[in-house]
């Protein structure tokens, strides 16, 4: 599969801080590529270099095999985490203004329809909700009909309904043959949207592949979850290790029947037991640790 974006031995330093430490990856055309990592991992810096916003200290960021340049700027769309919109303009007027910045692009009416902006097209930018604003910002990133679209934590702060609606929009856009580069802190979002992910930590890529491939490579077990209030036995008696997580205890096991029998022998009530497969959040914590990052 042809790579539309490539990073080759990419390094970015800020004085004595190495934010990106010699990473390489390819983004095939037509996929959603997710870049994940804890705070300070280097993912935002990596994206800024790939977007042509920040020059690399060394290494190369390539678009269709060429250094990021004028062609890329015409054929790329970017939805930043935060964008200041012009006051006293309507949603449609804002789209028209941004569309005029490009030689070629989509018809504004098509952008309005694609991003589900019909009901607010005549509304002042200052009088739209958070979810509506994110749809508008997505529309602004699409006005030039880009070949590659960067989405930098696009659903942060949205309620679950607005987030799901935004996911559906991203799926629709990808179905049009667009390549998407996504950064997100929501593991469910990455699993739902991304064909391939790269997990970064301390400026390096520590895992890369499809979500399902990475889960299969790193885990051969499932997780039993029980409310901590139900788990009153002496932990010193346990024949397995448990982990405290958000008011629950979690037990990882490759042999569910044996573990359930052990819990029953210990008199642990199982009425609120939940069995779940490993997920991207488990993988993320396994690879990057559980300590709080600044």
Structural notes for this entry:
There is one protein chain. By secondary structure, the chain is an alpha/beta fold. The chain folds into two domains: 3-216, Rossmann fold, CATH 3.40.50; 220-277, Alpha-Beta Plaits (2-Layer Sandwich). Helices cover 32% and strands 28% of the residues. It is built from ten helices and 14 strands. It has helices at 43-50, 70-75, 91-99, 108-114, 130-142, 160-175, 187-193, 211-218, 256-265, 280-288; strands at 3-14, 17-28, 32-36, 58-63, 66-67, 76-79, 148-152, 179-183, 196-201, 204-209, 222-227, 243-245, 248-253, 274-277. A six-stranded mixed β-sheet has the order 6-7-8-3-9-10, with helices on both faces. Strands 2-1-4-5 form a four-stranded antiparallel β-sheet, covered by helices on one side. The mean pLDDT is 92.
Give structural attributes.
single chain, 294 residues, alpha/beta, globular, 4-stranded antiparallel β-sheet, Rossmann fold, Alpha-Beta Plaits, 6-stranded mixed β-sheet, 32% helix, 2 domains
């Amino acid at each position: 599969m042809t790579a539309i974006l490539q990073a080759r031995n990419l390094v970015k330093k800020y004085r004595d801080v190495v934010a990106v430490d010699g990473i390489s990856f390819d983004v095939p055309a037509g996929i959603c590529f997710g870049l994940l990592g804890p705070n300070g991992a280097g993912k935002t810096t990596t994206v800024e270099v790939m977007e042509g916003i920040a020059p690399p200290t060394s290494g190369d960021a390539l678009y269709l095999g060429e250094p990021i340049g004028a062609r890329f700027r015409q054929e790329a769309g970017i939805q930043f985490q935060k964008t200041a919109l012009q006051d006293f303009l309507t949603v449609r007027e804002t789209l028209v203004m941004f569309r005029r910045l490009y030689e070629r692009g989509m018809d504004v009416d098509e952008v309005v329809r694609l991003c589900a902006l019909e009901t607010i097209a005549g509304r002042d930018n200052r009088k739209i909700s958070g979810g509506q604003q994110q749809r508008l910002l997505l529309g602004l990133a699409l006005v030039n009909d880009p070949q590659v679209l960067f989405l930098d934590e696009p659903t942060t702060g949205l309620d679950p309904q607005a987030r799901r609606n935004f996911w559906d929009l991203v799926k629709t856009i990808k179905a049009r043959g667009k390549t998407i580069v996504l950064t997100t802190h929501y593991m469910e979002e990455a699993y739902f949207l991304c064909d391939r992910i790269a997990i970064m930590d301390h400026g390096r890529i520590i895992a890369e592949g499809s979500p399902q491939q990475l889960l299969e490579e790193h885990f051969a077990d499932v997780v039993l979850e029980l409310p901590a209030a139900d788990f009153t036995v002496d932990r010193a008696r346990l024949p397995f290790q448990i982990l405290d997580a958000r008011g629950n205890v979690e037990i990882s096991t490759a042999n569910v029947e044996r573990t359930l029998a052990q819990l029953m022998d210990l008199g642990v009530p199982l009425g609120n037991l939940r069995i779940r497969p490993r997920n991207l959040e488990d993988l993320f914590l396994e690879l990057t640790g559980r300590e709080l990052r600044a």
